[in-house]
């Protein structure tokens, strides 16, 4: 039957041989990286710390520096560098929402630094070439960086304690399975 496609082609949820949807690819990516985090050969503390560092730097507006900083801090604090890399790139998933997140971070930073939130943002008065100047960092970047802490710190804390608990449970379950398989061999 020439009308039927071969079985080795991927099928989407509808059963036809179309390219997988964005949500299916996202789900596969998350599952693969979840498995990678769960099977890293390191302590739960190190993996959770590396993940928390990656999540923390993922929320900062330090474009081009996020990955390098997360790897450097993971190395400095003896966290898992692979976990830090996976978690800092995890923020690429929410790329369409970054303008809204940055606006919120900017407003929170302005409130934290100056105890006021501007009615209208002054981005219209800044030319594109001005964004490449260091003085722009103090007018736009500083409030954005301070405001990013309002998301980065709680997210990193939740990831550290949540992932550490999951990893401890997973490692204990694996140890119990190993003991259970070794016990019958010793009784013989």
Can you offer a commentary on this structure?
With 188 residues, this protein is mainly α. It has one domain. Helices cover 65% and strands 0% of the residues. It is built from six helices and no strands. The protein has helices at residues 22-38, 44-58, 66-76, 81-89, 98-114, 134-187. α2 packs parallel to α4 and α3 (66-76) runs antiparallel to α4 (81-89). The protein is elongated. The mean pLDDT is 78.
Order of helices and strands: HHHHHH
The average pLDDT is 78
The number of distinct β-strands equals 0
Give the CA-CA distance, first to last residue: 55 Å
Major sheet attributes = none
Question: Can you tell me the number of structural domains?
Answer: 1
DSSP helical segment count: 6
User: What does the radius of gyration come to?
Assistant: 23 Å
Low-confidence stretches: none
What best-fitting shape do the alpha-carbon axes yield?
elongated
What helical percentage do the residues reach? 55-70%
Beta-strand residue percentage: under 5%
Which structural class fits the helix and strand makeup?
mainly alpha
Can you summarize this structure?
With 188 residues, the chain is mostly helical.
In terms of topology, how is this protein built?
Layout: H1 22-38, H2 44-58, H3 66-76, H4 81-89, H5 98-114, H6 134-187
Helix pairs in contact: 2-3, 2-4, 2-6, 3-4, 5-6
